[in-house]
Amino acid sequence: MDKLIIEGGRKLEGTVTISGSKNASLPALAATILANGKSVLSNVPGLADIQTMEALLSHLGAKVEIDGNVAMVDASSIHDLEAPYEIVRKMRASCLVLGPLLARFGRARISLPGGCAIGARPIDMHLHGLEQMGAKVLLEHGYVDAVAPAGGLKGAKIVFDVSTVTGTENLMMAATLAKGTTVLENAAREPEVVELAEALIQMGAKIAGIGTNTIQVEGVSSLRPMEHTVGPDRIESGTFVAAAAITGGDVLIRGIRADHLEAVITQFEKIGCQIDGARPTHGVTDLRVKGPERLLAADIRTAPYPGFPTDMQAQLMACMAVAEGTSHVEETIWENRFMHALELMRMGADIALHGGLAVVKGSAILSGAPVMATDLRASASLVLAGLRAQGTTEVLRIYHLDRGYDKIERKLAALGAQVTRAKQ
Ligand code: EPZ
User: What are the φ/ψ torsions at residue 404 (nearest 5 degrees)?
Assistant: First the structure.
């Protein structure tokens, strides 16, 4: 297992280029199952989660080749319809193969993902939606066994109780090959859902209402393989905005989708950052982020897109730990996503937790310490705190970080951070 050793106190300066999005790549890779042929995805980030999806698709019988940032998936040889526990336990997003397998092959068996570090994370809405499309869903021995009716899944009107990103993605994929029209109400509007819809349309799917809460999918009889370029990772982008902010640095972030990050950019401007660069309403841009000597406090509340993303909450909290004044950080998506707070407190942060609310009293100084996190974004928040802290911070168990950040220590070192990877 690896750790990162960070000597804090350096202002980050220079240019960083954002990698392809993890949470857009995973559903796109799962969607390749829908077509009988070879799909090609480019700008796929080099991450442990991508390797897990590669292992899952290979287990199903697909021929998968990843060459740098290009993934080729030939789904014509799929013969196994089971996502086993050994793979699903490593990555919950493995459940994204459920909809495509059921739609194309009429059957799927996937291990039920358990709880995880940030909350219970059920998939009941995915399963209920598939039942409404006519599937018989059986839960036994820790597995979901789903069987489509004779003649395939049927279009249905599905209303989500709460907005679910992978739930919307799973059912949208299932609906592409169903008979008739499926309407998804209270659907998620995250950019990753929009990107998946666009990739599916390119495969021949008929989808309307993209980017709204009501998505309509008219089933077609078959789809062709996908050729798709994955968009930039908005959470990696936001994390580098936070890195410039917390170190009082000056960083040019290249290849960013400013339109996907409005809530994040606005928040970092409010707390004293200067953010310059064109902000087109569509397409990538470069943004230059200058952090102040001392950040200001903020009150934030996480919410589904276009609100402030839960996946940036931990990184913002690290910034609040050194800001001037008292901040309130409310987490509304995951019930247990404050693990980083306890570790930040070991570095000298003054944080009080009241259920889903964290009250952070900013202190001018954090001190380096050995810290450890149990989820990806919590680990990112500890790295940010380490960049700012006096002395040495060791972030242990960074395999979480490797699940979601492509070449993080190389990118940070290129900006002048003193950071090295070592065996734990
Ligand atoms: C996606 O997870 C992301 N993962 C998460 O990113 C992100 O935190 C989350 O969306 C929210 O934005 C991927 O895209 C692979 P949800 P997902 O279904 O789809 C409840 C990261 O750091 N719910 O939108 O699993 C659920 O418990 C990760 O990259 C049900 O109750 O999240 C939660 O409270 C972590 N029943 C809420 O809905 C269901 O069937 C939103 O979850 C499904 C969800």
Answer: -135, -5
Say if CB 131 and CB 124 are below 8 A apart.
Answer: no
- pLDDT of the residue at 115: 64
Contact 240, 261 (CB under 8 A): no
Q: Is the same domain home to 278 and 221?
A: no
Phi first, then psi, for residue 112 (nearest 5°) are -70, 125
Q: Within this chain, do residues 202 and 251 fall inside the same structural domain, yes or no? A: no
Q: Do 184 and 320 belong to one domain?
A: no
Is any atom of ligand 1 closer than 6 Å to the C-beta of 333?
Answer: yes
Pocket test for ligand 1, best of 333, 335, 337, 400 (most atoms within 8 A of CB): 333
Interval 71-76 mean pLDDT: 98
Give 335-372 pLDDT, tens digit per residue. 889 999 999 999 999 999 999 999 999 998 999 999 99
How far does the centroid of ligand 1 lie from the alpha carbon of residue 311, in Å? 10
Cβ of residue 161 lying under 6 Å from some atom of ligand 1: no
Mutate to test the pocket of ligand 1, among 22, 25, 96, 162 (most ligand atoms within 8 A of CB): 162
* 186-216 residue pLDDT tens: 999 999 999 999 999 999 999 999 999 999 9
Which ranges of 222-284 would DSSP assign to H, the alpha helix?
Answer: 234-247, 262-270
Considering the domain architecture, whether residues 26 and 60 belong to the same structural domain is answered as: yes
How many structural domains compose the chain?
Answer: 2
Distance CA(302)–CA(92), nearest Å, equals: 21
pLDDT attached to residue 256: 97
Q: Is the CB of 162 under 6 A from ligand 1?
A: yes
Please, are residues 347 and 366 in contact by the beta-carbon 8 Å criterion? yes
**pLDDT grade for 262, boundaries at 50, 70 and 90:** very high
Statement: residue 118 has pLDDT above 90? no
Nearest atom of ligand 1 to the alpha carbon of 121: 27
**122 ligand 1 Cβ < 6 A:** yes
Q: Which residue has the higher pLDDT, 335 or 67?
A: 67
Question: Which atom of ligand 1 approaches the CA of 49 most closely?
Answer: 15
Distance 305 CA to ligand 1 centre (A): 12
Q: Which of 205, 229, 253 is the last residue of a domain?
A: 229
Question: Domain range spanning residue 110?
Answer: 22-229
The 10 Å CB-count burial string (b at 16+, else e) for 296-323 is: bbbebebebbeebbbbbbbbbbbbbbbb
- What residues act catalytically? 116
- Domain harbouring 141, CATH code: 3.65.10.10
Residue where a domain stops, chosen among 229, 248, 270: 229
